[in-house]
């Protein structure tokens, strides 16, 4: 068992900044009916909800019930009817739907009540509770979808309003809020709501820091445009949708396969949530053990994250970045890949650096040094040296190096440089793949020739700008 300790310590150290920054934040988590029906994985997921709660995250859970409703209707000899991705709810089916949703809600409450609070000091008011407090209620006002495209959806509804004041009050008193996919009208009618769309509405109304969409195959299926990205900006996510839409449902003809259409529907919901003020929306396959914790408490997660703001930031380095740059380049200096730089040298030259930041951590850096030779007999030689290009080992296949190189080229070109050169001992082929050519020492500016370290014997590569 001892051999696992380093992994646990490393993970905990990596998770610590997220635990601290997310304490007190509101997460709205949608669990599809398929997730609830997965008897083998649901207990672990409930335990993860309890763990998030004990770490100070304010949780709002929105549950689906589609497969359970379909099974209930089937057992009653009724076939579920759908149009444009929405269930058609008739009066005879509404009673069965209410029974099914109530059963699921009480089951989730019972499971959460079995989980320990894990807060030995008790709550802020001085009381001690040996179980999690869960609250449900009439938080959602609904209205009928009505007749659309000639289809009467009956008691199928959509969200009209969310009682955010009541939800916030319960969250502030250490409750987990559980919301079912039913909406009440001011006249006492009950409407069957689309659960993931309800989760989007709740997250946008609060607004939540995160919206998490937990599902199975609909999230894990690879979209036609290739592998699922790990993190994407809001603008990119919207461009990936059919026609660039953020509509509530993708038409069935647009994509082949219900699972793929489901992925696009969830991606559309993520876009809507982020546009409404939710900073980050996560699409997670619940079948990955511990997926929720891995997504929330690790830098790269295991799902798809849509960000309202940029997740990776490429910017000019600041004096406060020096510690992060040192952590990044020290292993490469020890291997002899980079020339050693003292902290004092970095402090003096930090304005030469660009850094790539992911979620507060420096994951890549590069610097450019102008080298200009003037001569009475000819035009000045204007070149820039690319130096200290370093990418964290976890991101060397993530195009970080390409992005930094392109940024350095753009910047030096704007400053009137005609060529970019680099001295390298280990990565000649990478630079040649990116447009650099082998050159001789004599082709460098004279000032740089005099500084050349023959003991290092670095290769000279030049790229015209």
TrEMBL record:
Instruction: Describe which pathway this protein belongs to, using the record's wording.
Output: Amino-acid biosynthesis; L-arginine biosynthesis; N(2)-acetyl-L-ornithine from L-glutamate: step 1/4
The processes (GO biological process) annotated in the record are: L-arginine biosynthetic process
Q: Which GO terms describe its molecular function?
A: L-glutamate N-acetyltransferase activity
Reactions catalysed, semicolon-separated, are: L-glutamate + acetyl-CoA = N-acetyl-L-glutamate + CoA + H(+)
- What Gene Ontology cellular component terms go with this record? cytoplasm
Give the matching InterPro entries: AceGlu_kinase-like_sf (IPR036393), Acyl_CoA_acyltransferase (IPR016181), Asp/Glu/Uridylate_kinase (IPR001048), GNAT_dom (IPR000182), NAGS_kin (IPR033719), NH2A_AcTrfase (IPR010167)
Q: Which SUPFAM superfamilies match?
A: Acyl-CoA N-acyltransferases (Nat) (SSF55729), Carbamate kinase-like (SSF53633)
> Where is the major localization of this protein?
cytoplasm
Q: Which family does it belong to?
A: Belongs to the acetyltransferase family. ArgA subfamily.
UniProt-recorded name of the protein: Amino-acid acetyltransferase
Upper lineage:
Bacteria, Pseudomonadati, Pseudomonadota, Gammaproteobacteria, Candidatus Kentrum
């Amino acid at each position: 068992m001892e051999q696992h300790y380093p992994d646990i310590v490393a993970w905990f150290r990596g998770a610590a900044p997220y635990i601290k920054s997310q304490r007190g934040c509101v997460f709205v988590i949608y669990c599809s009916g398929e997730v609830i029906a997965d008897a083998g994985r649901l207990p672990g997921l409930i335990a993860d909800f309890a763990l998030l709660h004990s770490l100070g995250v304010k949780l709002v859970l929105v549950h689906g019930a589609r497969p359970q409703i379909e099974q209930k209707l089937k057992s009653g000899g009724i076939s579920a009817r759908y149009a444009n991705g929405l269930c058609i709810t008739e009066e005879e089916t509404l009673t069965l739907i209410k029974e099914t949703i109530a059963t699921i809600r009480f089951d989730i409450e019972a499971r959460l009540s079995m989980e320990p609070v894990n807060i030995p000091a008790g709550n802020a008011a001085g009381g001690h509770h040996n179980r999690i407090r869960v609250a449900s209620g009439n938080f959602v006002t609904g209205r009928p979808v009505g007749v659309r495209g000639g289809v009467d959806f009956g008691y199928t509804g959509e969200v009209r309003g969310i009682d955010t004041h009541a939800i916030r009050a319960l969250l502030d008193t250490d409750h987990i809020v559980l919301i079912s996919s039913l909406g009440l009208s001011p006249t006492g009618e009950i409407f069957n709501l689309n659960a993931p769309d309800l989760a989007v509405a709740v997250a946008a109304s609060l607004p939540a820091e995160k919206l998490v969409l937990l599902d199975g195959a609909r999230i894990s299926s690879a979209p036609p445009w290739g592998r699922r990205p790990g993190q994407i900006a809001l603008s990119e996510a919207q461009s990936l949708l059919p026609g660039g839409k953020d509509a509530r449902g993708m038409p069935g003809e647009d994509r082949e396969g219900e699972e793929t259409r489901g992925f696009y529907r969830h991606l559309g919901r993520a876009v809507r949530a982020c546009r409404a003020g939710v900073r980050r929306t996560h699409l997670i396959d619940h079948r990955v053990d511990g997926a929720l914790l891995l997504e929330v408490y690790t830098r790269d997660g295991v799902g798809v994250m849509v960000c309202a703001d940029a997740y990776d930031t490429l910017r000019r380095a600041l004096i406060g970045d020096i510690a992060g740059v040192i952590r990044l380049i020290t292993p490469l200096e020890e291997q002899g890949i980079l020339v050693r730089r003292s902290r004092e040298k970095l402090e003096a030259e930090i304005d030469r650096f660009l850094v790539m930041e992911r979620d507060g951590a420096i994951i890549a850096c590069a610097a450019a040094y102008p080298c200009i030779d003037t001569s009475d007999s000819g035009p000045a030689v204007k070149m820039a040296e690319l130096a200290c290009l370093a990418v964290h080992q976890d991101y060397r296949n993530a195009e970080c190096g390409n992005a930094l190189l392109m940024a350095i080229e753009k910047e030096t070109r704007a400053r009137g440089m005609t060529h970019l050169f680099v001295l390298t001992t280990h990565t000649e082929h990478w630079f040649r793949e990116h447009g650099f050519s082998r050159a001789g020492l004599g082709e460098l500016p004279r000032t740089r020739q005099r500084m050349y370290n023959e003991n290092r014997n670095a290769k000279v590569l030049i790229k015209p700008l």
